[in-house]
Amino acid sequence: MSLRSEPGPSPASPSPPPLLCIADLAFRWRSGHPAIESCSLQIPRPGLWMLVGSNGSGKSTLLRLIAGLLQADGGTIHTALKPALVFQNPDHQLLLPSCGSDLQLGLPPGLSAGQRNARMLQALDQVGLSGLEQRPIHTLSGGQKQRLAIAGALASDAGLLLLDEPTALLDPESQREVLALIRQLCSRSERPLTALWITHRLEELDSCDAAARMEAGRAGPWLRAAQLRASLPPLPSGRAKR
What we know:
By secondary structure, this protein is α/β, with parallel strands linked by helices.
């Protein structure tokens, strides 16, 4: 009688590395005041991820550390994606007179003139600003300026958008438009973006894939929006402490 061995279970496929991995991050201001302490956070896949927390909890500082605008005192930040920071006030990052010229400023080096023009037009189209390449920036609405700032991140080849309360200065309609734009960019079938979004507006959590609470310089676990909202008191609006 012949014996036949049954095939065993196939080995599980290794999980892909996280797109962003922060471990034991620490940062202190020159005064010695700690802003980030033993902060660990991972983003496992593309999507819209949100951080909430009171003023001074370290949210904005964390984004600046990821973007490389601040140097950590300890811990590590590893990301597989190029980060780009989108400020609360787009006037703080839109530097040149027209929409097209401002986007040209942030394009990767080594592109031909034709490639640069095509990249600029594509970025404008992706944020709903097609045909406005010659438009003076000062004539744009607040919502259009914020979409232009997002276009600048796209044109620079960023795959990780760091959004610091990007709807705080906008009217309700523009708030919805910007949130819907980021949601669409993070959900597209080809090259979906990864976005880390700071918010004080708890209703915005309904659009995210998961959310975490920042408290005393540390990030909590990712939770479903409804679960996190239920555990939070209303958060005051306003510019976060840096």
